[in-house]
């Protein structure tokens, strides 16, 4: 169970970082 929680947290942080990078690289029109 702990492994699933850790993997979910890692994926969540990776998704947040990717979203932030996309927003920074692509300014809203």
Automatic annotation (TrEMBL):
Superkingdom, taxonomy of origin: Eukaryota
Name used for this protein in its record: Uncharacterized protein
